[in-house]
Design goal:
This protein is an all-alpha fold. Helix content is about 75%, strand content about 0%. The longest helix is centred in the first third of the chain and has 59 residues, at about 120-180. The two termini are about 45 Å apart.
Length: about 700
């Protein structure tokens, strides 16, 4: 009996190994080694189109290794498909029998085999082998095709990310160029800020590595970047930049023209993404909401008239419905990523663009000047041991201090980090479920009572997180809304000849809305000995929004290049104001489709509730109708209808929760924003079923 599941276990183990490859360096090395040994010579000559797709997608794997791993993935997929096919064949034999399965094969396939030519065992082996071969070959080609298509999909996503980051990246280059920085230094500064300026900076970083590692001159590096990038906008920019570098034209003037041009194109780029979101919303409503509702309804009607379809309804409810929603959330996250144009976190980057993590962890031996016995200076070497110990103590102190702040000022800490609320609400919800378990198992396991308990706990977790997150989000929006005014006042003062330090002192005394407190903290840091760059970097770390991060990075790098930063600050103000306007426009555009999702959800819940409360209770029990002849029409008993009702209730709960998450991802580009929609939809669903199905709260 156990041996029957050995192939399935082996298939699952292989899938688990391949699934762990992106997360484990050790597994990745092992898989790459096996793939190269087995299929390293499968494609000795590179396909130009596929090679260009790999480069455009930013995949750092060489062509031969990627091809070898593709064959390995395809082989594993074929093996898994063959195993699944064998189990499918065994299921068909068990359900239909060999003769029943043969009767369903078209006569043209069965006629050439004489009657009695094959034994029963041979027929079973033929069925198992046929289904295994069919699904195995199909799985191999599907995996092989999909894996070769992934670079094209990633390149297209990368193109949108680069296009979205172009205005900010060109503004950054423009600011440094106006300060007199050379183009190689500008490219290097941009490469240090990949986490701030996104995919465009990553493309520029490749050119910087070409210059640093291979000695490529700047013109050649720029040309190679233009040939490699999937973005037509960046390609044109780099080609024009190459021409400017060769012709000796004014570099800053060229960048100013390019900045204004890309700023005008920013709205067009957003429109492209909004069109994709609009199409995705229509597909979601049609396929996931209406389509699943149609399938569930049709299968239920078939079940009560022709046979039991409960298993299929449960399969759609517990597997297909969640899977399709998860796929849409992943797709929307990929589509909306270019709108952010930067990574959500700038891990390892300070606002000045230097790699803080690398600097802090660098323990290379250093030299320092010390006083010699004769009163002179001598060079003393340090191995960094004391510094390393001090850094470890400082890191430990920061962790303890963060915990202390969370305990002493929980409200303030929650506003800054809303996810901390989950460390409180999730244990409380789990405790609530455990406390109610005796009532669930009081007279045998009552699934409906258990559903009530889970819904209560889920609503509690979602609602509390939604409230805290919404407070935090609105606070950050108010901060970003005040940012353009702050920057414009700084620019005006700096243009009048006031230094940046004095400008900050004067601006903090004025009313700048939500930034009043932050301006005071910036000035307090400066009074305590911090430089302007350090004070702004701490301000960025406190606020941690993409707009503030880009602005602080731009100003700090501009201050390193020149003392006259008024034009740069004004550019930063224009950027912040434009970003806010585009964000508002996007929210207004997607509000329509968010309403459509709500309407589709209401239709879903109403139809399911109507079937559950109107249709099913009025169905006669098939077991009580043997004399009337109605059993030919009704094929489900009271026990069967109760199972259908419970499944419908679960389908409504699952759809409401996941539709809310999809709505948040679509409306604001973050699944966190979906918590409030999921709370509202889940509460509506549960209330509707309580009112119309007679469900009662426990206790």
């Amino acid at each position: 009996m156990v041996l029957e599941f050995v192939p399935l276990g082996l298939a699952l183990a292989l899938v688990a190994v391949l699934a762990l490859e992106p997360a484990s360096r050790t597994v990745e090395i092992a898989v790459t080694s096996v793939a190269y040994r087995l299929f390293g010579d499968a494609e000795a000559s590179a396909d130009d189109r596929r090679q260009r797709a790999l480069r455009s997608a930013g995949i750092g794997t060489p062509y031969r290794i990627y091809a070898a791993k593709t064959y390995l993935y395809g082989t594993v997929g074929g093996f898994v498909g063959a195993v699944v096919g064998a189990y499918v064949g065994a299921f068909l034999i068990q359900v239909l029998g060999v003769e029943g399965f043969s009767n369903r094969v078209p006569s043209g396939f069965a006629d050439p085999v004489p009657e009695g030519f094959l034994t029963l065992a041979a027929k079973q082996a033929a069925i198992l082998g046929g289904t295994a071969l069919l699904l195995g070959v199909l799985s191999f080609f599907v995996v092989y095709f999909v894996r070769w298509q992934l670079p094209s999909f990633q390149a297209d996503t990368r193109r949108r990310q680069i296009d979205a980051s172009m205005p900010r990246m060109v503004a950054f280059i423009y600011a440094l160029a106006r300060g007199g920085m050379s183009i190689p230094d500008v490219m290097e500064s941009l490469a240090r800020n990949e986490g701030v300026f996104g995919a465009g900076a990553e493309e520029m970083a490749v050119g910087v590595r070409d210059m640093d590692l291979f000695g490529t001159d700047v013109v050649t590096a720029v040309r190679q970047t233009s040939r490699r990038t999937p973005s037509e906008n960046l390609r044109n920019f780099m080609q024009n930049l190459s021409s400017v570098l060769q012709s000796g034209r004014n570099f800053a003037e060229f960048l100013g023209q390019e900045y204004r041009r890309y700023r005008e194109q920013a709205e067009e780029q957003q429109e492209e993404i909004l069109e994709l979101l609009a199409t995705a919303a229509e597909v979601y409503v049609t396929v996931v909401v209406a389509g699943m509702l149609f399938l569930i309804t049709i299968l239920f009607v078939i079940g009560i008239t022709s046979g039991d379809t409960l298993v299929l309804v449960q399969l759609i409810t517990y597997a297909v419905l969640p899977a399709t929603n998860v796929v849409f959330v992943a797709y929307l996250a990929e589509v909306t990523q270019p709108l952010k144009a930067t990574r959500d976190t700038g891990d390892g980057l300070d606002a000045g663009g230097t790699n803080v993590r690398a600097d802090r962890l660098s323990l290379e031996p250093t030299t320092s000047a010390a006083v010699a016995a004769d009163g002179g200076l001598s060079t003393v070497a340090f191995d960094g041991t004391d510094d390393a110990a001090n850094r470890r103590r400082l890191a430990w102190f920061k962790r303890v201090e963060q915990v202390r702040r969370s305990l002493t000022s929980p409200i303030d800490e929650l506003v800054v980090r809303p996810e901390l609320i989950l460390f409180v609400t999730v244990p409380l919800a789990v405790g609530y479920v455990l406390l109610r378990l005796p009532g669930v198992f009081g007279a045998g396991f009552d699934l409906r009572v258990f559903d009530d308990v889970l819904v209560h706990a889920t609503l509690f977790v979602l609602a509390t997180y939604a409230v805290v997150y919404e407070v935090s989000r609105r606070r950050l929006e108010r901060l970003e809304g005040s940012l353009p005014d702050l920057l414009e006042r700084l620019a005006s003062l700096n243009e009048a000849g006031v230094s940046i330090v004095s400008s900050l002192d004067r601006v903090r005394r004025t009313d700048i809305g939500e930034l009043d407190e932050e301006a005071e903290r910036i000035w307090r840091d400066i009074q305590w000995g911090a430089t302007v760059e350090q004070a702004l970097a701490r301000f960025q770390q406190r606020v941690e929004t993409p707009s503030v991060t880009r602005t602080v990075t731009l100003i700090n790098n501009a201050m390193r290049a020149s003392n006259e930063i008024a034009p740069v600050v004004r550019i930063a103000a224009e950027q912040a104001r434009s970003d806010r306007q585009l964000k508002r426009q996007r929210r207004q555009e997607m509000l329509t489709y968010l309403v459509v999702i709500y309407v589709a959800f209401i239709v879903f819940v109403v139809v399911i509730a109507a079937i559950d409360t109107v249709l099913i209770p009025n169905l006669p029990d098939a077991s009580n109708l043997p004399e009337t002849g109605a059993t030919g029409f009704l094929q489900v008993s009271n026990e069967g209808t109760e199972s259908y009702r419970l499944t419908f209730f679960h389908a409504a709960l699952i759809q409401s929760t996941l539709s809310g998450l999809v709505g948040g991802q679509m409306g604001n580009g973050s699944i966190k924003d979906g918590a409030k929609h999921a709370t509202v939809m889940l509460a509506i669903t549960y209330t509707v079923f309580l009112l119309f199905s007679g469900l009662q709260f426990v206790g």
